[in-house]
Design the sequence.
């Protein structure tokens, strides 16, 4: 079972807001005291918070789905619903929050740093909040909205000042154990270190942290060995220490060739530059200050190898230290050299002026409607899709079992200008209108459904604009009625054409009238007067 996890995909969702309440205040001698329905409570947020007692993301590896509690519904007597409880998820210091596409959302550094991973949905307004001079006693309330739901990637990047890099079995874990109180696993076989190790070192007045990552080999950028998977843990380090094995028994290896291979692998590693700017510009790993530690000089062959390669390394500009994790030779000098680099980096950060991000104000354009209408085609028939933050939110807040709530939605959409824009787009009565995306609400558009304050005088929960409509026919029924009218007109034309061909239309109307017998006062037409 995994004991160290430094990358997880977390599925978080905020709580759903509670629905508003429809209520009328009633007391003795005041049976209709006005609306008193309270608002629904807001859903809880999901917050990531840095906790120094949390060192791994293992809990989220086993339970990746996290959901905050929902808000309570509103109640009568102006009582609001209970807000959902905020779900706080502790994360280690140095956790980077990203999207699945790699976009950095937050870089959580420092105890108590927080990031809202998923916001809770707002609660719906009760009928008390919806009352106005024109709508004194609303018989409806707004529904609460669902909380934000998203998938975030959590990557742990350890907070360390110095990073130890080198081949497997070069002695990195032994150095950490010799210089600090850390006790990493140490064995005489490659890839003993499978997870990053941290140790705290005290050198004079400077206290700093060193990190040991699993060993690199040639081809690590292509996935050989453990690859570059754990190099993210040294991205925050101020300097690197190349730990070179001077006592290796492999004939094809030597400290100089090992250094060239490690430098080449560091060159191929792409440091995440997207969150640069908090502590300054992020510098690639192979461009940071580097020290060289020639390890295992306690061995006779190791001492000779160190003395042989030291002049060449110093000629390249490296500061070289001959050390031994077993005898502790040279560890004090190496520790003070590390402390010197760390203190210089800290002083540079302290002396640099704080970078303040300018506040960018983006006011809404004067001619911005707040929505857009896109004309589409489905089943060879026109379809108009209304997209916008306000219309889509209003539809989700509407209770479609309540006529007055639907009328209120029609008023809001008409005031926003949706109906006017549909006319401009060429929409006709009976056309399909969708508000929202693929899961939007579908309407058969009826432009006669106009808004107006004079139409609001109706019983609570109803709307007089629906009274005249009754059972509104569906689009299929409308097409069938239209086809029946066409068939009736075609039959009438065929009957008239048959009468014309039969000669019924050849005799004039006056002639037919003259041929009819005249009966008047009981006398025959040919009697003498």
Sequence:
């Amino acid at each position: 079972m995994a004991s160290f996890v430094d990358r997880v995909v977390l599925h978080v969702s905020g709580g759903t807001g509670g629905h508003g309440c429809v209520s009328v205040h009633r007391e003795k001698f005041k049976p209709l005291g006005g609306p008193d329905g309270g608002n629904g409570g807001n859903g809880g947020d999901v917050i990531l918070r840095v906790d120094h007692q949390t060192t791994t993301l293992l809990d989220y590896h086993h339970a990746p789905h996290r959901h905050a509690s929902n808000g309570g519904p509103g109640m009568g007597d102006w009582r609001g619903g209970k807000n959902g409880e905020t779900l706080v998820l502790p994360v280690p210091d140095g956790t980077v929050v990203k999207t699945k596409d790699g976009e950095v959302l937050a870089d959580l550094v420092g105890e108590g740093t927080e990031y809202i991973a998923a916001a809770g949905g707002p609660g719906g307004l009760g009928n008390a909040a919806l009352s106005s001079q024109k709508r004194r006693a609303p018989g409806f309330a707004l529904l609460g909205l669902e909380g934000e739901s998203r998938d975030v990637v959590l990557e742990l990047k350890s907070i360390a000042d110095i990073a130890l890099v080198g081949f497997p079995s070069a002695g990195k874990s032994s150095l950490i154990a010799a210089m600090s109180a850390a006790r990493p696993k140490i064995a005489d076989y490659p890839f003993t270190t499978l997870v990053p190790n941290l140790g705290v070192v005290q050198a004079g007045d400077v206290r700093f942290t060193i990190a040991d990552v699993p060993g690199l080999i040639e081809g690590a950028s292509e996935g050989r060995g453990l690859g570059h998977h754990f190099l993210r843990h040294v991205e925050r380090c101020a300097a690197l220490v190349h730990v070179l094995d001077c006592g290796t028994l492999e004939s094809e290896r030597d400290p100089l060739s090992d250094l060239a291979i490690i430098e080449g692998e560091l060159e191929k590693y792409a440091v995440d530059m997207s969150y640069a700017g908090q502590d300054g510009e992020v510098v690639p790993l192979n461009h940071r200050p580097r020290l060289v530690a020639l390890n295992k000089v306690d061995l006779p062959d190791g001492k000779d190898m160190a003395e042989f390669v030291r002049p060449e390394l110093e000629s390249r500009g490296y500061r070289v230290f001959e050390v031994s994790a077993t005898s502790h030779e040279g560890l004090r000098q190496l520790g003070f050299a590390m402390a010197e680099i760390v203190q210089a980096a800290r002083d540079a950060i302290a002396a640099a002026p704080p970078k303040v991000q300018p506040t960018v104000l983006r006011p809404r354009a004067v001619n911005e409607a707040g929505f857009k209408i896109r004309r589409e085609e489905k089943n060879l028939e026109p379809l108009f899709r209304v997209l916008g933050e306000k219309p889509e939110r209003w539809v989700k807040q509407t209770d479609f079992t309540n006529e007055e709530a639907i009328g209120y939605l029609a008023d809001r959409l008409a005031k926003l200008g949706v109906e006017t824009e549909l006319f401009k787009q060429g929409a006709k009565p009976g056309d399909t209108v969708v508000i929202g995306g693929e899961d939007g609400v579908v309407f058969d558009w009826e432009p006669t459904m106009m808004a107006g304050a004079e139409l609001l005088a109706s019983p609570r929960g109803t709307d007089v604009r629906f009274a005249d409509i009754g059972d509104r026919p569906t689009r299929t029924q409308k097409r069938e009625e239209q086809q029946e009218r066409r068939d009736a007109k075609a039959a009438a034309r065929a009957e008239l054409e048959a009468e014309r061909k039969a000669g019924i239309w050849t005799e004039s109307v006056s002639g037919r009238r003259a041929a009819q017998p005249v009966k008047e006062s009981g006398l025959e037409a040919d009697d003498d007067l």
About this structure: The first helix runs from residue 58 to 62.
